[in-house]
Specification:
Layout: H1 5-18, E1 30-38, E2 45-52, E3 66-70, H2 71-76, H3 88-94, H4 110-115, E4 120-124, H5 127-133, H6 138-146, E5 150-153, H7 160-172, E6 178-181, E7 185-190, H8 193-214, H9 232-250, E8 257-261, H10 264-271, H11 275-281, H12 286-292, E9 297-298, H13 307-332, E10 347-350, E11 354-359, H14 362-385, H15 393-400, H16 403-410
Parallel strand pairs: 5-6, 9-10
Antiparallel strand pairs: 1-2, 1-4, 2-3, 4-7, 6-7, 8-11, 10-11
Helix pairs in contact: 1-8, 5-8, 5-14, 9-13, 12-14
């Protein structure tokens, strides 16, 4: 059966948006389209929603990765929504709104796409948009950046209520082309697929320009003496010497594959005075800390210290990290929370050398590093125009150990 023209346009738009890392992170964000198609039983046209399913990647999305839902049934859920305390039940309810056979599992963001009164919707995680979303005065900065063309939606955990919030904001602001979601990302909409994509890109690029034109020169502070990057050959030699020690620490609970990044953005961050404070605040965008854990392990020594001294200090910091992570879990875990996944860090930062990231396979390890680089970019942007203010720790835990997000991670594309 031929793919509906709305779904074809959605796939093409998703590929364009997902192919540029400035627009969204790997497997992050989602896009949708609405349109009419015949009901296979009655033959009468019904309104449908095509939306990226749970765990898919925009850049490589296929027709099989789309969830297809009856729009009337999805919107009827507004009448039976039991409230935020029973949010998890709504994703199961989406299964009863599916149209036809096959297709992907609906994600927790499905409500956002179905409830917003627009034919096309994009929800993305661009560094520039998240920088505004995670700034201490993000609402004011959003108004300064966009005027009344982009609205502000305060932080809310992804789910049905967030969809209701965004739908209400769109209705109250008919001139708006989208919104910034506090602590999270952006959402854009349009009457056509082309208009929606253009609106999403306008929000992203306008935020980039705003940060560049209004940001201060050194948002991470001055360079710490002795913490600058080692020369290339020395840096790689040091990284090679440290790698087996760090991977052993990161593999205390289960074997891990490592990835190394010594890009200029990472090295500059680790050379600056504010990096310990900012790293301790942790990442903010839900997709980020699902991969990076709530915060990294940061070595507090310059790269010129003897290797044996560095290894000893890393052992001490690792023991403290495990204790702190277990305490974090204990502070926030509830009877129904998933078990702790392990207390080892997913990201280890070594000033003057670079970033080591870890995962179950090479792709997962690489993506964890990419996501922490996204977080560095977000911190830079937020600090340049304001102060980086991520969501509260309790909210981070609710996301990190949310069963619905656990399910999303299980559905991610397999490593190549």
């Amino acid at each position: 059966m031929a793919l509906h023209s709305s779904a074809e346009a959605l796939l093409a738009r998703s590929h364009r948006l997902g192919s540029d890392p400035r627009n969204t992170n790997y497997a992050g964000g989602n896009a949708s389209a609405k349109g009419a198609a015949p009901d296979p039983v009655t033959g009468h046209d019904v309104e449908l929603l095509w939306v990226k399913g749970s765990g898919g990647d925009l850049g490589t999305l296929t027709a099989d990765g789309l969830a297809v839902l009856r729009l009337d049934r999805l919107r009827a859920l507004r009448d039976v929504y039991p409230g935020v305390e029973r949010e998890d039940e709504m994703v199961a309810a989406f299964d009863h709104c599916l149209h036809g056979k096959g297709g992907a599992v609906p994600s927790i963001d499905t409500a956002m796409h179905g409830l917003v009164d627009a034919p096309h919707v994009d929800h993305l995680h661009p560094d520039s948009g998240i920088a505004l979303a995670c700034a201490a005065d993000g609402e004011k900065l959003t108004a300064d950046c966009f005027g009344d063309t982009v609205a502000w939606v305060p932080w809310r955990r992804p789910g049905f209520q967030l969809g209701l919030d965004i739908a209400a904001v769109k209705e109250a602001n008919p001139q708006a082309i989208g919104c910034v979601l506090g602590g999270h990302g952006i959402t854009a909409w349009g009457g056509t697929s082309e208009e929606c994509e253009a609106n999403a890109l306008h929000i992203i690029r306008t935020a980039e320009t705003f940060l560049a034109e209004h940001g201060r020169a050194e948002p991470f502070g001055t360079v710490i003496e002795g913490y600058g990057a080692l020369p290339d050959a020395d840096r790689r030699e040091r990284a090679a010497a440290l790698a087996p020690h760090i991977r052993a620490l990161a593999s205390r609970d289960r074997p891990q594959v490592g990835h190394f990044d010594d890009s200029p953005a990472v090295l500059d961050f680790l050379a600056r005075a504010e990096h310990p404070r900012l790293a301790a605040l942790g990442t903010s965008c839900p997709d980020h800390f699902l991969r990076t854990k709530v915060r990294p392990l940061v070595l507090d020594l310059p790269p010129t210290v003897e290797l044996s001294g560095t290894v000893t200090r890393l052992n001490e910091l690792h023991a403290a990290y495990r204790e702190e992570y277990a305490a974090y879990y204990a502070r926030h875990a509830e009877p129904g929370s998933p078990p702790m996944r392990g207390a080892d860090p997913a990201v280890v930062l070594i000033p003057g050398v670079g970033m080591f990231s870890f995962g179950k396979d090479k792709q997962t390890a690489r993506v964890a590093g990419e996501f922490y680089l996204n977080a560095i970019n977000v911190m830079r942007g937020a600090e340049a125009v304001s102060a980086y203010a991520p969501i509260e720790e309790a909210e981070k835990f609710r996301i990190e150990y949310w069963e619905l997000e656990e399910a999303k991670l299980r559905r991610l594309p397999k490593a190549e």
